[in-house]
Amino acid sequence: MAPGHVAYGLGAQYGLRITAETVMAWERGTALPGERELMALAGVLWCAPGELLAAASTLREHRLARDIAVDDLARSLGMTGAAYQRVEESGRWRGNERQAVALCDALDMSAAQFLTATGRNEELAELLTRAVTTRWQAYVRPVDKLVPLDRVLIQDVLEQLHADYQALMVSTLSWNTTGRDRAGTAGDAGREFLDRVVEEFWRTAGI
């Protein structure tokens, strides 16, 4: 179908006044259709809305990929449609832990995808950095509140990451040498480890 045919179908079948130029912009990725437009586009092209999306990275994209209405999803979470809509628009999660787990179940999201979609990756990285460099036990609860995973699993992962980091520091730092290169090596290794700490967290958690 040419863009003009798609635009005609959107108007004839769904009453949307969309030009062929707009359809071409959607194809190029220079413009994005709204939710109603995406649903209509899927209808015209005889496919599921999720097939028109790249890998979902926001809550809205995850919901559209599952073809779930805002009100239906909000109801399953025990939220009002307006409250959930504000979450999608802001990209910040304001629900509780139970609702976070329910959201992941409803949208078939992993814990890692949940944090990406709700803009919490930086916050997790900060908590993990503190956990591996200080007392990891103090960060079990904060990470548990942030990530929809079992607390025992979080505890085991933080303990393992802390042990890995401490072993790394011991193996790269020697107090028997007076040169600065060895200390610099330790610092570089430590920074490299911290850069990978979030990735290691998900890997160790089996996500």
Query: In percent terms, what proportion of residues is strand?
Result: under 5%
> Judging from the principal axes of the Cα atoms, what is the shape?
elongated
Q: Give me the Rg, rounded.
A: 23 Å
Helical element count? 13
- What is the average per-residue confidence, as pLDDT, rounded to a whole number? 82
Profile the largest sheet: none
- Write the element-wise H/E pattern from the N-terminal end onward: HHHHHHHHHHHHH
Count all strands and give the number. Answer: 0
Helix coverage percent: 55-70%
The assigned structural class equals: mainly alpha
What separation lies between the terminal Cα atoms?
Answer: 40 Å
Low-confidence stretches: 174-186
Protein name: Helix-turn-helix domain-containing protein
Domain HTH cro/C1-type: 59-114
Organism: Streptomyces mutomycini
InterPro entries: Cro/C1-type_HTH, Lambda_DNA-bd_dom_sf
Characterise the protein shown here.
- This protein has helices at residues 3-14, 20-28, 35-44, 59-65, 70-77, 81-90, 97-107, 111-117, 121-133, 140-146, 151-172, 180-195, 197-205.
- It is elongated and about 70 Å long.
- Helix 5 (70-77) packs across helix 6 (81-90) and helix 10 (140-146) packs across helix 11.
- The chain is mainly alpha-helical and 207 residues long.
- InterPro entries: Cro/C1-type_HTH, Lambda_DNA-bd_dom_sf.
- This is Helix-turn-helix domain-containing protein.
